[in-house]
Amino acid sequence: MALLQIERKPDSAFQGRLIRHTQSICPDCNRILPANVIEHDNKVWLHKVCPQHGEVEELYFGSYEMYQKFSTYWVDGKGTHAPNVPIDLCACPMNCGLCSNHLSHTGLANIIVTNRCDLTCWYCFFYVKKGLEGAYVYEPTHNQVRGMVRALKAERPVGGNSLQITGGEPTLRDDLADIIKIIHEEGVDHIQLNTNGINLALQPELATKLKAAGLSNLYLSFDGISPRTNPKNHWEAPYTLDSCRKAHVGVVLVPTVIKSVNDHELGGILRFAQKNIDVVRAISYQPVSLTGRMKKQEREKYRITIPDCIHRIEEQTEGEITRDAWFPVPSCSPITHFVETFTRKPQYELSIHFACGAGTYVFLDEDRNKLVPMTSFVDIRGLLEYLDEKSDEINSGGNRYIAAARFMAKIGSFIDKAKQPKGLNMSKLLVNALIKHDYSSVGQFHLKSMFLGMMHFQDKYNQDEERLQRCDIHYLNPDMRIIPFCSFNVIPEWYRDRIQKKYGITVEQWEKEHGEKLEAKLYKGTLRRLGAQKPHEIMGCATSAVHIEPITGV
Amino acid sequence: MSHGQLTAKKAGPTRIGSISLKADRDTILVDEPIKLLLRFQIDGGFRDNFTQQVWEEAYKAHDVRLRLTLTIGFAKKVGGVFSRKVGKPIKMVRKAKLFWTRNPERHNRTWVMVIDENEAPMIPKSGAEAQSLLLDFNRSFDLLGTDLGKGTHSIVAKVKAKWGRHYYAPKGSVEATSPPIKIVCT
Ligand code: SF4
Ligand code: SF4
Predict the structure, then answer these.
(1) pLDDT digits (tens, 9 = 90+) for A379-396
(2) Chain A interface includes B162 (CB < 8 A)
(3) Which chain A positions have a beta carbon within 8 Å of B59's beta carbon?
(4) Whose alpha carbon is nearest atom 8 of ligand 2?
(5) A34 upstream amide cis, omega within 30 of 0
(6) Percent of chain A scored above 90 by pLDDT?
């Protein structure tokens, strides 16, 4: 293990208290820079100086207190033992593929099936834009998809088993169901579709078709509860939910959170999900990643971090979902570690950096119509501590069956049965999942609950190579490289654009081959216009939706 | 952590050293609290092996997390040989997590974070500081006069430290009792 060190001395001319040293990149020239994670004003900042382009100080985590709490869950993962880029010197983000220094196996693999889209959102860089020099349509063939999935399954010690089909807009591919079948045939159990949902709203039978092919759930872009905050699919989302409801396809709502744009609606999004809890399984809030060159003032206007979102949710739910309910993603590690020591088999683990993501489970108390976070009836911290203690015991030669029996006898003490939502037997569920590896009851758990997640994708301003090295959201590529999300999208000129150019065709060629214009599939706003004309009718299939405002000049 | 084949680099015994107990006063009223300051350190094999060089090896074996359980109790001497517990023993956990550091100032890639019994995470600046954060103990406890009862008491602290099997130490535990201090409770 060795680190490429551009300069050994991190800059020390910063204000505040040093927390740790790391590395980052210059947002102008991508040069690798030493960086400091520092604290001032009770917030955490990333500070770096490029000898050519100067100093950048960027908000990293909006609460020092939460940063400290989250950092206690820091655990490095097993990594992946079959790197595609064998290399000794670690120079993140230069050698992604994955290289020998990467510290997490793939948790969720992304496959881009097209970079065409039926929308043209101003802030999006993911779709092919006609007329731009060097615009390529990228649509991997079935064989390429199969090859990429095989590369995922070949990861060691744990083969990937969770995959997201993404784009552009994947439903623009007529053969999407065939692609899902291929992925399923190759042994991936969990397949989710990242979509704006418009085609599923327009063609309700599509959800049933995709489900039959092996689709597990939808990852539905959903930025707010008003047309102003969610111009993308405000009018269409209720129809999409209805299609999924009929097809028994669960939905994850995915708001990109931008300060001063939609951060006042985080609670509203949660209420919308609550009203649709029969079909919405989760919300994945994503604080915005600021792409492109942006002035400091503009960044300050839009920049929001995980603790800020957690605080907004607490405020906007009037304390129903408190800040204490949230745990960083690697807090799952004691559970994985326990199952691993108990079964003596390497397990799938979520070993991303503690600053990357957070989550909590909430349950619906139907009598009071309120959401109850799991932390209000489970002593999560105590339970995780206890699991750690038992793993240590087994690892040190203790009898695993005795440890498991003790765990079963003790589990009830971590659960406040009086506060547990009606009909839920948390102790039984945990014993089944952790000891018997019977996950059938977990399905029931999901039906009565929602997972609230958060992931703050990085950008060139706040990129921390320490986070990147632990990334477990990866892109599969036709050259068999598996590239971390925050390299692939943060430095597209090195990864995404090059790959899409190499494996894509020009727009002109695509149009010639397909006999249609690229813009022919653009969404014309059918449902939006119908909503404006007949607001009552459009509400018909979305009675479970929150109040939808009439269009006001969007 | 991998199983079975891991052993400590040096087999020297681990012990509790420099244990001392002090009180903020020697006389209290029965309805008053008293502050006791307990100091000790874990020395010997465990400490000697808890070094950057050994972390590097432990990290390769994915032995990245350590739990050190400390149980601290107080007792008063009864007669010449026996002692009776005062208050309930307190259990505390300190943790160490090895991680791949990108600190450009370091030549080695494995470093450690220590989390103390108050769940405060700390990244030490040196190996010696890491040993101290994990293995040195200096903390005050409140005892109530009612726990002691009226009379002249000889108080000791009983300390136990326990850990599982790791690259830098076999599974083990050490115990020690502090020298007694006199407290008069009226
Ligand atoms: S992010 Fe991971 S794969 Fe990319 S260079 Fe760093 S360690 Fe290697
Ligand atoms: S995608 Fe980015 S934010 Fe998410 S785990 Fe990877 S590095 Fe962290």
Answers:
(1) 999 999 999 999 999 999
(2) no
(3) 76
(4) A356
(5) no
(6) 72
Q: How many residues does chain A have?
A: 554
Could you give the CA distance from residue A447 to residue A160 in angstroms, rounded to a whole number? 25
**Cα angle vertex A208, ends A206, A209, to 5°?**
65
Nearest to A172 by CA among A438, A494, A519: A519
Over residues A177-190, the pLDDT tens digits come to 999 999 999 999 99
Measuring CA to CA, which residue among A298, A441, A485, A448 is closest to residue A361? Answer: A448
- Tell me phi and psi for residue B39, to 5 degrees: -130, 140
pLDDT at A273 over 50: yes
Q: Which residues of A447-469 are buried (b: 16+ CB within 10 A; e: fewer)?
A: ebbbebbbbbbbbbbbbbbbbbb
Domains and CATH numbers, chain B: 15-91+136-171 (2.60.40)
Q: How far is the CA of A504 from the CAs of A2, A116, B71, in angstroms?
A: 36, 11, 64
Test B1 with A395 for CB contact under 8 angstroms.
Answer: yes
Q: Look at residue A27 in the predicted model and tell me its pLDDT.
A: 96
C-alpha separations of A487 from A156, A457, A475 in Å = 21, 10, 10
- Compute the distance between CA of residue B35 and CA of residue B24 in angstroms, rounded to an integer: 6
Per-residue tokens: A422: 């009606």
Query: What is the rounded distance in angstroms from the CA atom of residue A339 to the CA atom of residue A348?
Result: 10
Best residue in A37, A395, A470 for a mutation probing chain B (most B CBs within 10 Å): A395
Cβ neighbors of A358 (< 8 A, separation 6 or more) are: A70, A306, A310, A326, A327, A328, A329, A453, A454
User: Of the given ranges (A226-235, A368-377, A429-438, A543-552), which has the lowest mean pLDDT?
Assistant: A543-552
ipTM of the complex: 0.90
Residue A239 CA to ligand 2 center (angstroms) comes to: 31
What local confidence, expressed as pLDDT, does residue B113 receive? 98
Encoding tokens for residue A107?
């948790």
Q: Are A437 and A322 in contact (CB under 8 A)?
A: no
* Averaged pLDDT for residues A158-178: 96
- The per-residue pLDDT for A379 is 96
